[in-house]
Amino acid sequence: MNFNPKYASIIENAKILIIDDVITTGSTLKGAKLLLEKMQPQRVLSIALAKTVSISEDMQFCDKCGRLMRVRRNSKTGENFMGCTGFFETPQCRHTMSIS
């Protein structure tokens, strides 16, 4: 990342707030803060409005074929359930399980 040097006098001794809409790894905020700190501001504060959530820890696999299960919704009852992602694959797997 580069910073336009014409803004150096504005940033020096300034109090700066960096706002990120969504934080995933934090690398954007960290990079921006490190870049600004080179310009010697009085203080840099970083905040994010939301954080992405990974569901990889909660991944479930089909007992029948080993493919990934995903949350689906019964169109008649509106009830959520886990359905095998192999439903549209060949060979087809129609295995489902309740969410508990």
Describe this structure in words.
The protein has 100 residues and is α+β, with helices and mostly antiparallel strands. The chain has helices at 8-11, 27-37, and strands at residues 15-23, 43-51, 69-73, 80-84, 96-98. It has a 3-stranded antiparallel β-sheet with strand order 3-4-5, with no helix packed on it. A two-stranded parallel ribbon has the order 1-2. The longest helix is centred in the N-terminal third of the chain and has 11 residues, at 27-37. The radius of gyration is 24 Å and the shape is rod-shaped.
What labels describe this entry?
single chain; 100 residues; alpha+beta; two-stranded parallel sheet
Task: Name the overall outline.
Answer: rod-shaped
H/E element sequence: HEHEEEE
Which whole number gives the mean pLDDT?
Answer: 87
> What is the distance, rounded to the nearest whole angstrom, between the alpha carbons of the first and last residues?
46 Å
DSSP summary: helix tally: 2
Number of strands: 5
Main structural class: alpha+beta
Strand count, sense and barrel status of the largest sheet are:
3 strands, antiparallel
Give the proportion of residues in helices: 10-25%
Residue share in β-strands: 25-35%
The radius of gyration computed from the alpha-carbon positions, rounded to a whole number of angstroms, is: 24 Å
Q: Record the strand order, biggest sheet.
A: 3-4-5
Low-confidence stretches: none
